[in-house]
Amino acid sequence: MIKKDGMQKINKEILNLKESPLYEYRITNNYFPVIGEGTEKANIVCIGEAPGKTEALTGKPFCGRSGKLLDEMLASIGLDRQKVYITNLVKDRPHDNRDPSPEEIALYAPFLDRQLEIIKPKVIVLLGRLSMYYIFSKTGIATELTTIGKMHGKLYKGKLSYGKVDILPLYHPAVGLYNGGMKPQLFEDFKVIKKFI
Ligand code: URA
After folding, report:
1. Interval between CA 163 and ligand 1 midpoint (Å)
2. 53-89: per-residue pLDDT in tens?
3. Domain boundaries, given as residue ranges, for the chain
4. Which of 69, 101, 106, 182 is the most buried (most CB within 10 A)?
5. Which fold has domain 2-196?
6. Is 131 exposed, middle or buried (0-12, 13-18, 19+ CB in 10 A)?
7. Which residues line the pocket of ligand 1, CB cutoff 6 A?
């Protein structure tokens, strides 16, 4: 119950985040902010970059084409989507699918921090390099950062205020959409999560 209250408070604050450079764009397009989906009791939290159009139209993370591939990867290791919590570093859709700016990340990341404080996951799965850069800095292991090409599929150990956390950087699922040849690698990397289920 307390976890739910904390999440609802975050939800309300983001809904009213008028100072965000993405707020007007949200309102003009009848978009929703995408706060996150899944159980607050999850051991595993997956963090993407920012919502795409389908996500902004529905308010649900990873429900478009990247989401379909993510669902396939979850199914391939027998992990029920309802058992994890899925969210993004930035909660509103940036214009025309561009990457969120450093200022937008700085504005939205504290909400992600609070979500992690509420859920206290043991494992954080990073979908893409932007969440990787942020979470490595946040968990005190920024010195281990190189490129996603070198780090994907390898486990790292970091620390958050509530304790130790295993961190798994992965390629963003969209990589498998624009380069089908990468798909087997995405599925292979996902197998690392199996031991935490
Ligand atoms: N890409 C992301 O990073 N997040 C989503 O929710 C959808 C696509």
Report:
1. 27
2. 999 999 999 999 999 999 999 999 999 999 999 999 9
3. 2-196
4. 69
5. Uracil-DNA Glycosylase, subunit E (3.40.470)
6. buried
7. 34, 48-52, 55, 61-62, 66, 88
